[in-house]
Specification:
The protein contains 1 helix and no strands.
């Protein structure tokens, strides 16, 4: 598998149960292997619901007082 160039294409199976691949980055006549795997729920973006959500910190450089630490009690 030296020099393997994998291409990921997301598409949908049509009403006839077919998938059509177009504009592949391989020359005409090149032998390729096609593996079809259903997309899981995690791959559809449900695994990381907070991804892309902006994070804001209120006073991030303020010191933390010892009375704020439950582990010290």
């Amino acid at each position: 598998m030296v020099g393997m160039n994998a291409v990921r294409i997301e598409t949908t199976v049509d009403e006839r149960g077919e998938v059509h691949l177009t504009k592949l980055p391989f020359p005409a006549g090149e032998s390729v292997e096609v593996i079809v795997v259903p997309k899981s729920a995690r791959q559809q973006g449900k695994g990381f619901p907070l991804r892309g959500i902006p994070i804001a910190y209120d006073r991030p450089t303020d010191p933390v007082a010892e009375e704020d630490w439950d582990a010290l009690r």
